[in-house]
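During the second year of the project, the team shifted from modelling isolated chains to modelling whole assemblies. The rationale, set out in the original proposal, was that interfaces cannot be judged from single-chain predictions alone. As a representative example for this report, we include one of the complexes processed in the last quarter. Its constituent sequences, exactly as entered into the pipeline, are reproduced here:
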Amino acid sequence: MKKTLSQIEAGRKAIIVDFAAHGRGSIPHYIIRLQEMGILKGEKVLMIRNAGIGPIEVAVKGTHLALGRGIASKIIVEEVKE
Amino acid sequence: MKKQITIALAGNANVGKSVIFNQLTGGNQIIGNWPGKTVEVAYGSIETKDVTAKVVDLPGIYSLSTYSEEELVTRQFIMEEKPDVVIVVVDAAHFYRNLFFLLQILEIQTKVVVALNQYDILEKDGYEIDTEKLEQILHAKVIKTIATKNVNLKGLFEVALKVAQNEINGSYLKYGKEVEERIEKLTAHIQGDFGVSKRFFAIKLLERDSEVEKLMNDENIIKLRDELAKELEDLHGENTQTIIIQERYALAERIIEKVLIKKKKALLDLSTKIDNVLLNPFFGFVFLFLILLFMFFVVFKLGSFLSDYLDSFFETFKTSFMSLNMPQYVKTFLWDGIVEGVIAAFGIVLPYIAPFYFLLAFLEDSGYLARIAFLTDVFMHRLGIHGKAFIPLIESFGCSVPAIMGTRVLERKRDRIITSILATLIPCSARSVIVFGLVAAFLGPLYAVGIYVLDFIFIFVVGLFLNRYIKGSATGLIMDMPRYRKPVLKVILKQTWIRLKEFFTFATPIIVVTNAIMEGLILLNLLPYLEILVKPLAIFLGLPALATLTLIFGVLRKELTLIMLATFYHTSNFLLVLTPKQIFIYGFVTMIYIPCIATIAMLKREFGTTTALLITIFEFIVAVILGGILNVVLRFI
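Output from the structure prediction step:
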């Protein structure tokens, strides 16, 4: 089931599927930055912290990243069932 | 003659670059602004038997794109200054992400030595890196280091010197076939010497890097780029920027598979465990509140002690100065006009801001500052900025000047302007001196708290207003969460110095000069005229004209209002000359009515004259209106 990253509970894993409102051509700068920080399509992330409000913390590519809720809600993911 | 060699240190933020820099140069360093830019670059030097090595500590970045000024500066430095060797400092414990950056530096095809730093943490995590294999893959020397314990840094330096004198190695790492073919095609068409590899330029062109496009300035190349980029985009269904990021990470992954060896199961991550408490939605804020309270308590205790100490020191100096054989007015001008300005910087403000910035740097180096940004993000979002903006706001409790400089941690100009305006409204140490010395001393501490509360409400309202009316939408937070670590004294001192230096070199001269001008006005006996001029304002605020006149001096430095009040009225018992209501209004107005001259100059430097003037006029008008309202309201209480 597709969700946004902001909807994933702490302790769960998810795979990044897409970025909302992102087509070809010029893409928003913050998406490039996310990708440079390792938030890429197909990447598996582990949700470390998600309190329902405020930023979230994820583990990706061996590091921890804090993302604002607005940004996290633009990242489309698929939850990984384990 | 000795050989001159330039060594640059590059790497992600928080990898220990500054520790390596300090250990290598032994504190023998100058921190300077990059010419024309507002990014700090530290220079130092090392002398050996036959070489003088200049070491440059570049700002910490994650990529060589154009997202931030730091990234551009690093790129320009490597391209224009052509260091003889670049030491890429890599956080071994976060090897994957760091490889992403390292691969970009290698694309430039400059001489590189890799420092695998914090290697002990990697081992604690249960891993090992096969450095020999890594050297073969990267075609570069790799040294394991533990900077905080000074392990292998001498070896690193020696290898760097050796590499600097070797011929450059032409081999490079290849990307996937489809991308690689197009890079090669584009590279073959690039002509001219840009100081770095044509391959780097070809890749940057494919990424649609506007800076490189400007340098290239060749229509045919751009046309070819467009064709090649379109081919790639059709193949992958993605933007070329994304494709190249993916390629780099894919390459990093292949390297990791070959060189990273898992030894044993990792221990539970202590940092995450600590964060379960410190980032808890309840305890997190309690702890944040306590730590800030503790900070201000320490700063004011230590500050007032140092301030008194320096005061009495200058006082004895004054006595001997005044007994010199010179005309009285010359002595008065020299002392009150010039020396007092210097004393203000060293004797009044420094004792408060130096300990403050020291503690702030301590929090920064321990990793807690990133947690503050995390905790305050929700709240800051209401004001149209994100959590990282809380850091300069905290800084401005010390002094607004370095705080405005500190807004450079924010990526966008909109965020920087909003944060800077809010920073000018935060009670800096000088304003706190007034609130403590006037309101708390004569009306009681509760009234002082009242002023702070009113100010914070005001700041919040201004934030909401700015968020609404400054064009653009709020940016989100994207921030690395570093692990907690034991702070290193040398790094803390360097950070403290960077912030203090801004105060000294930038603010102090402005304060001294304007102070001298003001003293000239007094000596020329122009004050009575000014008194008539401020009369309407005085009636509106419900203050005596003489007291209102002292507000002018607050433009120089806020705490001077209090000093002038005592000077004009020949008493420091202000209850004799002002009613309690007037004291409260006076305290409130001085808190917000205008940024001091040094802050205005800083705003001008960062955002231009118009913005600086608009902010100043806006704050003045609002403060007068609010002061007037307070005057009316207090009559009924």
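The longest helix of chain B spans residues 283-322. The first strand of chain B starts at residue 3 and ends at 11.
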